[in-house]
Task: structure prediction
Amino acid sequence: MKYIPVIGLEIHAEMLTRSKVFCSCANEFGGDRNDRVCPRCSGMPGTLPVVNHDAVTLAAKAGIALGCTVNNYSAFDRKNYFYPDLPKAYQITQFEFPICTNGLVHVLDRDIRINRIHIEEDAGKLVHDDYEGISMADYNRCGVPLIEIVTEPDFRTVEEVQVFVEEIALRLKYAGVCDAKLEQGSLRVDVNISIMPFDSQEFGTRAEIKNLNSIKSIGRAIEYEIERQSELLDKGQKVVQETRRFNDNHGNTKALRSKEEAHDYRYFPEPDIPPVYITDEEISDIRALMPEMPQQRYMRYTNDYKLPADDAKLIIADKAFSDFYDSAVSVYPKFREISNLMLGEVNRNLNDTGKTIGDVPFSPEDIAETIKMTDDGKISKNAAKTIVKIMFESGGTPEKIAKDNDLIMQDNSDELEGIVEGVLSENEETVAAYKNGNEKLFGFFMGQVMAAAGKGTNPKLIKDILTKKLSNNQ
Ligand SMILES: [Zn+2]
Result:
């Protein structure tokens, strides 16, 4: 490739407040059209917006999660434009004084600078009915609180962008700011991309691709754009500054409109909302309220719990799964054993049944109990897997499932002693070799006794009896 891509992102995230950002309508997803609107969020003249305190707190948390400065002073502005899903004909946003600035997130080998995070309101939605040939305006989303995260143009590869978006989604989830569901639109990514020749220092003209809704589409859209812009420059033509839409079916981007400049929106300070002041003390209170973030959890899992790095990452990648794991180890702190069962058998059943950990009919305590029964020699490791499978199908406690399904190992010590003696007397030469120091032969005896004793025998018990018999010198 003769060119270097230069990429920056604008990420919109819907915040998890109970009500909208400037009125008391519920902030929810789904439902009937226009059943969560009031005079304020539907833009009736003369109504006054009131800032939702929680929206400010969550935006500050997002800033802390992304290494930003939370500003003591921020203020709202009107961004003026007309579109049928925006009944006021302006959007309330923060233009000149955003709530957070100057963040930094490290991904792969690169530092990505966050220019700013500001609070704004979402617009409504147009629902197009092709059959009737009409479009309807649904204002339920009007006034849903958003943050917009704006990065500097610091990305140079597709992979950096994808890893970054996953990282941001994870941090916002852990911080409780946003549920970060790309597919449902609670996290939306706009990509600004230009290319420049290898020996150049000067950025090229950029195109903006709007509203990408999966990690995969982000990658495909960027790759398409790099190719499209490279072809233009190769032919001596120019890239036009414009907004483009990515078509998932065709894998290409199409021009939507020429890119507006800030002055096209005639921004001015929102006269109906006083500026937001946050004291240093309030900022440190918010900081103290921050839940454990994924990086911290990773350190706890790898340093304190001694989990392998890959296992720790897998658990942390799903917050609910990780919370479930934490509850299980808080009951019975066998970190590695519980991790193995969850990443193995529990995950396998989640995949098979299409469930998420939030839907399963058993509790973290049940997983802890299953491991404890294995440790106590009541059930075998295989039985633990069977128990997990049955818990997925019909719930129930591990203890009861083990009894009902004959999974409890028998304590048949007397009978076993006989079997062990039999095996040893049939293999006198091997016993002698073992006693002469070939300790590896222990496995051979274990195998022989297991085979003779049959299924359902507690291996720990066999091991104990064998050790006893072999160490005695008769
Ligand atoms: Zn409302």
The pocket of zinc ion is lined by residues 20, 23, 25, 37-38, 40-41, 143 (CB under 6 Å). The two ends are 78 Å apart (CA to CA). The longest strand covers residues 3-14. The chain has three domains: 3-281, 292-404, 413-471.
